[in-house]
Design a protein that fits this description.
This protein is an alpha+beta fold and about 210 residues long. The protein has six helices and nine strands. The strands form four sheets. The protein has a three-stranded antiparallel sheet with strand order 7-9-8. A two-stranded antiparallel sheet has the order 1-2. Strand 5 and strand 6 form a beta hairpin. The C terminus is likely disordered. Bound molecules: zinc ion (2 copies).
Length: about 210
């Protein structure tokens, strides 16, 4: 129904995938490479997100960068375990119904609830002790972080403010002051969320 051709949708979380942002996972083993290449048979019975393409005739599904790397990481965990105790790659279980927001550390439903946020590669994000099952991908230039809708919206608001006045964003304190005085949603945010989001605003100001 979209103009200019069908929009690609992440099979797992339902995020819209822009050009060049589509990753592909195999449902079946790639025939030449056997069962050493990652493949995810559970996807044949896992319900696709709204508007997502079903598994295609070659056994591929489209995913976003966060879901793709999350499933590869889970595959590798299964591989590491299976040296001592064999679980067939065909019957492995994967945890994709929920994720943990990097910022508020709440477990959220992934389908239509996962927002990807791009931030600078700062130690603040790289070395922060992460909650288990939070999502973070380092593409070498930026970090892509999995946020819930609420935190993702706050971070985007920070980016908007940053574009309006880069000169005033010289320190985290200035950033926090600026955000708390001009962003109404901050007044109702829990303290931990407000501080995480102001750190993000600061990171964005450093990056641009
Ligand atoms: Zn996704
Ligand atoms: Zn959150």
């Amino acid at each position: 129904s979209a103009q200019g051709g069908p929009v690609s949708i992440c099979y797992i979380c339902g995020a819209e995938l822009g050009p060049g942002k589509e990753f592909q996972l195999n449902v079946n083993p790639a025939s030449r490479l056997g069962e050493k290449e990652p493949f995810f048979p559970f996807l044949t019975v896992y319900p696709p997100a709204p508007r997502a393409r079903p598994v295609d005739s070659t056994g591929l599904v489209a995913t976003c960068v966060l879901c793709y790397h999350d499933l590869l990481a889970q595959w590798l965990q299964h591989e590491a375990r299976s040296t001592h105790h064999t679980v067939s790659a065909w019957s492995r279980q994967y945890q994709v119904e929920t994720f943990v927001c990097f910022f508020c550390q709440q477990e959220k439903k992934r389908c239509l609830g996962l927002k990807s946020v791009r931030v600078a590669r700062l130690p603040l994000f790289l070395y922060t002790l992460r909650a288990s099952h939070s999502l973070l991908v380092d593409d070498g230039q930026q970090l892509i972080i999995g946020a819930c809708v609420e935190c993702g919206t706050l971070v985007c608001a920070g980016q908007g403010l940053n574009r309006q006045g880069p000169m005033s964003w010289s320190s985290p304190v200035a950033a926090a002051t600026k955000v708390s005085s001009s962003c109404p949603s901050f007044h109702s945010a829990p303290p931990s969320l407000a501080s995480a989001a102001s750190s993000v605003s600061w990171a964005l100001s450093v990056c641009h």
